[in-house]
Design brief:
The complex is a heterodimer of chains A (221) and B (329). With 221 residues, chain A is α/β, with parallel strands linked by helices. Chain A folds into two domains: 8-126, Beta-grasp domain (Ubiquitin-like (UB roll), Roll); 135-220, DNA polymerase, domain 1. Helix content of chain A is 34%, strand content 13%. Chain A has a six-stranded mixed β-sheet, covered by helices on one side. In chain A, helix 4 (135-142) packs across helix 7 (205-220). The two termini of chain A are 26 Å apart. Chain B is an alpha+beta fold and 329 residues long. Chain B has a domain at 223-326: 2-Layer Sandwich (Enolase-like, domain 1). A five-stranded antiparallel β-sheet of chain B has the order 4-5-8-6-7. In chain B, helix 5 runs antiparallel to helix 10 (165-171) and helix 13 (287-298) packs across helix 14. The longest helix of chain B is centred in the C-terminal third of the chain and has 18 residues, at 309-326. The termini of chain B are far apart. Classes of the chains: A alpha/beta (221), B alpha+beta (329). The interface between A and B is large, with 49 and 40 residues.
Chain lengths: 221, 329
Amino acid sequence: MKPDDKTRIAHVTPREFVTRREFVGATVLAGGIASIPLAEAQTDTQDTHLVRCSIIINNQAHDLTLDPRVTLLDLLRENLHMTGSKKGCDHGQCGACTVLVNGRRINSCLSLAVQHEGDKITTIEGLPTGGELHPVQQAFIEYDAFQCGYCTPGQICSAVAMIEEVKAGDASAVTPHVSEQAAIQFTDDEIRERMSGNICRCGAYPNIVAAVRSVYGRNAA
Amino acid sequence: MRPFTYHRPATSDDAIAAIGAEKEARFLAGGTNLIDLMKMGVEHPARLIDITRLPLASIEERQGGLRIGAMVRNSDAANHALIRERYPVLSEALLAGASPQLRNLASMGGNLMQRTRCFYFYDPSYSECNKRVPGSGCAALSGYNRIHAILGASEQCIATNPSDMSVALAALDAVVQVKGPRGERSIPILDLHRLPGNTPQQDTNLRPGELITAIDLPALAWARRSHYLKVRDRNSYAFALLSVAALVDMDTDGTIRQARIALGGVAHKPWRIPQAEQLLVGKKPGDAAYHALADALLRGARPHRNNAFKVELARRSIIRALTTVAAMA
């Protein structure tokens, strides 16, 4: 698990980083005159101090120069073109942007990229090894655990970390008697509670629960 | 989002110096609330001081209790062996909040600093919000106020504090350690958050430039018998409509030696009236004693058009939480 020798270097300047929403919004306001939003973007960011930052993403080191406003999610999608992680709500309410940071699941939409200096990020693109899908990915296919698929990368990243949390003995809000610190019974209620940070608008929950249960069963066996 | 400068100091002193007297600077921890508020246009700091790398992420035994560093993540505190064993009400409250992903980001200090989830505060397209724009009015008073306060509110603001963790800390008599330009001080948890009064823009009694460094849990052997009950619109991943943190110390003769109750979702701060808890002392556990306590806690409750249900919900939740705790082995 060591980074590739060749480090990728990307400079994300504020000028490049005009989000689609800002651009479209400003263009509409300006009646389609493109020079106005661009000029605004430059003025907006004139006194922003760019930040140098090294982040390891899916085992590859990236040396970045970042506008501090860039979230980890936007860095992945807009600048590194890793579009597996999805932007659903962009407010930490849906879980579609879930990635692993040093093995722990987080909402990448609510975390600034510059806060991740030195961190190891794993996205859905980084889960397969040697051309083989991760067992959780395979289980989602086997159990038909999605319809439209938009929430799926977040669901899968979340499930990968969740299984580790259960193995570590972490309690959840439905674990009886947190003070006793007994081994976690991997019930469907536990799966639902532990996966509640990932919303599926299609309602594929029964099959998501079945997929997660099957992977945990295999691991435990 | 408004541009800001980003700083990542190595020590608490550097962080406090970096924030200085700058009104438009904010400490940035997990970011789960602040980044969101910046996206919404509610917060627009000119300078962010990232405190996530400060050496404030340990949990240590201290004077029979625990000192929890401000940068300990909510998930780590919830699953710390000593917190689960000695202060289950805090583990339960933390685990009832947000989602696993958010708890992995959110810090203990940041959780204390959460701002209200009042719809009218969170959305600047509403022009009236005294908390966001002092003097502009309160849209919630005549708006949809189902989630709002029934206790301790004012004509200026009926927002509630959204934190589950703070309700458990209130019941545990936690002490918040802060450090600022004028040195260190300790703030009892019940003095940290404020009632809105005429200055709802001020959530806490922290002074400018002060940094929360730790939360101290006092030695409290009987906190093992404790529970956090959260009532919400869906079973998980939702803010509390109402919550109860309850601790009960039972005497050998089956009467209550002492008890502590704090309510969430009803006021601008965790709602606790220590004198009211005296009503349970020496009493047999049961509805009669619990009703008397509920009466005292809810005295002066002033519901609004959409949240009258909270008064009865609070009463029933208090009784249920106390019944659960009193029945614990």
